[in-house]
Amino acid sequence: MAAPPILLLEGIRFTLGNTPLLQGASLSVSPGERLALVGRNGSGKSTLLRIAAGALEAEAGSRFLQPGTTLRSLPQEPDLSGHATVLDYVRAGLGPADDPHRARSLLDHLGMTGDEAPARLSGGEARRAALARVLAPDPDILLLDEPTNHLDLPAIEWLERELASFRGALVLISHDRRFLTALSRATLWLDRGVTRRLDRGFAGFEEWRSEVLEQEEREAHKLGRQILREEHWMRYGVTARRKRNVRRVAELAALRAARRSRVKPQGNVRMEAAEARESGTLVIAAEGLAKSWGEAAVVRDFTTRILKGDRVGIVGANGAGKTTLLNLLTGRLAPDAGSVRLGSNLAMATLEQMRQGLDPNATLADTLTEGRGDQVWVGGAPRHVIGYMQDFLFSPQQARTPVGRLSGGERGRLLLARALAAPSNLLVLDEPTNDLDLETLDLLEEMLADYGGTVLVVSHDRDFLDRVCTSVIMSEGAGRWQEYAGGYSDMLAQRGEGVAARDAPRREVPPRETAPREAPRPAAPRKLSFKEQHALDTLPAVMERLGQEIGVLRGWLADPDLYRRDPKAFEARSTALAEREAKLAEAEEEWLRLEMLREELQG
Fold first, then answer.
1. Quick one: fold of 1-69+140-205?
2. CA-CA 20 to 30 A from 395: which of 320, 452, 472, 530?
3. How many CA atoms lie within 13 A of 34 on its CB side?
4. Spatial separation of the C-alpha atoms in residues 254 and 257, rounded to whole Å
5. How far is 408 from 534, CA to CA, in rounded Å?
6. Residue 603: pLDDT band by 50, 70, 90 thresholds?
7. Domain residues of the chain, as ranges?
8. Where do the DSSP E strands lie in 46-185?
């Protein structure tokens, strides 16, 4: 028999402005329970949690907290006023029987000393201080609203272990799938103002949600109700994308297998050589990059090749230099040593830059159209702004909503819509998952799966890295960076450990050549052979000639009447085109290999 609840909300109603937010929501928490509270941004999750904590009064419904039960809640905007130091603030939340030394230990794990002045804290530091304050006691119930915000990977993994050993009940709101899966044993879904409970952890939630929505749709058809198109997309679009993810997972596995099959990144093509193929084979060639800030080496002797279609994640502890490395690779920051070559005809879209460019007074539609009519130019083609908005889960009624009134997840969708509307073949995303809800993360993963170019991404979201990346560049400390094939989990398997805190001592990581599936490399010769040098010198002319022949053949085959007039000529030229394209690909790959070998021998 299940234990009686120690916290119970029933029939909770709450209206925000003129919009009913909660319409009969319920919440039941038993001793030791692990409950994930999930729902779209703006659905009322934080409001429900504040009502559960007693910080907000509901308009209707009941709240019961068993007498003698201790409850701690993580506020979104903590108030540290009245305390001389962060340590004083954390210790002020302790009870008489709590260990005062635990406060200092928790702050240390969260990257703070405790001696900081509260008035000088950033928003992220204040959130970490508040997290230490609610963890320091040993409450019966812990309510956590987005506890991983502003935490790096070492802190997130530490927090997972800390909460796993917590003996009380836990109610958790988070957009980090891996975090929710590891900690939850039951799931409460807040949707359209009401709650549904699943007595399984978050791992089973998304499949269950799809089944619930599909059943609703079937019942709606049976009753003959007409569902408006925008509601249909917003409520059931996630289901359709979830089904298509099976294909995308297989495609990502194929990309990762191709990445692993490379003995090493190939080639050091000149910028003009990248024009030989429309696809732009080489996107970024970095050789011996080094960058220091003062005495601290942020990047030291880093070399990589990023080819078209690669999805490269950059991970590490806060302060390791992830954004610095990203700026070096994209040419926005000059290195102290080494060189970066960018492929020709690159069109770069950067989400981080657009985060700073939203006018809170502009409407959603004007932000997308830049105030020019009702058309959005997407990849060089016009689309009506309402249709484009619906692709990003906005309703037509939101077209005239000021940007300043959008939720964090809605602003994230708007930023994605702007970034992906611009023509690009290189997408640079610095912490794109911040403030995004699960549906928006689904949308982002969908867009990246369909994106035909190359992606560079900095993220602390392990599940997102696994779903998106074909390789991960990992900070090994002291300015050293190492690239691993696959996503975050693949990196863990090859590396044998996770992301360590920046200053923590750790063992030496074996070089990539000794990782699984890497064959030992023979010692390089002292110089190129005559045959290799001759091929290196003559291949550019061969590639240019093949490119010209391909252009001529494509011109002939563009004639719509050629097949009708002369089927044999059409077939012969089609065969010739395929042969020359194959020869061009082979020549380019050989040139890349030889150029890389030449630079290694000279270096």
1. Rossmann fold (3.40.50)
2. 452
3. 16
4. 5
5. 58
6. low
7. 1-69+140-205, 79-138, 273-514, 524-602
8. 60-65, 71-73, 141-145, 169-173
Residues 295-306 have a mean pLDDT of 90
What are the backbone dihedrals phi and psi of residue 294, each rounded to the nearest 5 degrees, phi first?
70, -125
Helix (H, G, I), strand (E, B) or coil at 187: strand
141 half-sphere exposure, CB direction, 13 A CA radius:
23
Beta bridge partners of 424: none
For residue 497, give the H/E element and its range: none
Contact 481, 450 (CB under 8 A): no
Q: Which DSSP string corresponds to 65-87?
A: E-TT--EEE--SS---TT-SSHH
Taking the C-alpha atoms of residue 432 and residue 420, their distance in angstroms, rounded to an integer, is 13
Cα distances (Å, whole numbers) of residue 374 to 234, 364, 412: 22, 11, 21
pTM: 0.65
- How many whole angstroms separate alpha carbon 515 and alpha carbon 474? 14
Are 1-69+140-205 and 273-514 the same fold in CATH? Answer: yes
Q: How far apart, in whole angstroms, are the C-alpha atoms of residue 34 and residue 186? A: 6
Q: Do the beta carbons of residue 80 and residue 129 sit within 8 Å? A: yes
What pLDDT, on a 0 to 100 scale, did the predictor assign at position 456? Answer: 93
H/E element holding 433? none
Closest CA to 159 of 45, 80, 53, 74: 74
Domain spanning 273-514 has what CATH number?
3.40.50.300
Residues 6+ apart with CB under 8 A from 396: 230, 386, 389, 390
Backbone dihedral region of 269: left (phi > 0), alpha (psi from -120 to 50 degrees) or beta? beta
Contacts of the segment 12-17: beta carbons below 8 A, 24+ positions apart:
12/48, 12/51, 12/58, 12/60, 12/61, 12/63, 13/58, 13/59, 13/60, 13/61, 14/44, 14/47, 14/51, 14/56, 14/58, 14/59, 15/59, 16/44, 16/47
Q: What is the DSSP string of 268-296?
A: ---TTGGGGSTT-SEEEEEEEEEEEETTE
Greater model confidence, 165 or 534: 165
Tens-digit pLDDT profile for residues 232-255:
443 445 455 555 555 555 555 555
Instruction: Using the predicted structure, report yes or no on whether residue 228 has a pLDDT greater than 50.
Output: no
Domain 524-602, architecture per CATH: Orthogonal Bundle (1.10)
Report the alpha-carbon distance of residue 315 to residue 259 in Å, rounded. Answer: 18
Measured from the Cβ of residue 477, the count of other Cβ atoms closer than 10 Å reads 18
What mean pLDDT do residues 352-379 have?
76
Q: Picking from 274-283, 443-452, 486-495, 589-598, which range would have the lowest pLDDT averaged per residue?
A: 274-283
